Amino acid sequence: xxxxxxLRGDPSKSSKVYLAIGLLxxxxxxxxxxxxxxxxxxxxxxxxxxxxxxxxxxxxxxxAQKRRELESQVPDWAADxxxxxxxxxxxxxIAKRHLGSRSEPEPKTVRERARSVFSNR
Length: 121
Prior knowledge:
Elements: H1 3-7, H2 11-31, H3 36-73, H4 76-83, H5 85-100, H6 110-119
Helix pairs in contact: 2-3
């Protein structure tokens, strides 16, 4: 899994998922403890998932702390302007205008897609 994809979204929620999978792997390792090879694989999996889960939890805490530090340095009036609905809609309009000018309509059929691929080269 790519690191960017791992850190995208809410790392605290992702950490809970990884910790849960790690705990399940640990329980599974205990269940198959008589089979040496499977036990070893499950312990390794459990360790990896638990390690990623703890790392994501730590990253989430550091990220939240940095966000609080940055927000404390911004004046209240500027924070209110940034969080306002008008600013949000204005930024969305600008982004759509900027990104929309580059996009072309999506070809509908396989034949149109193939033609567009070969015509661009």
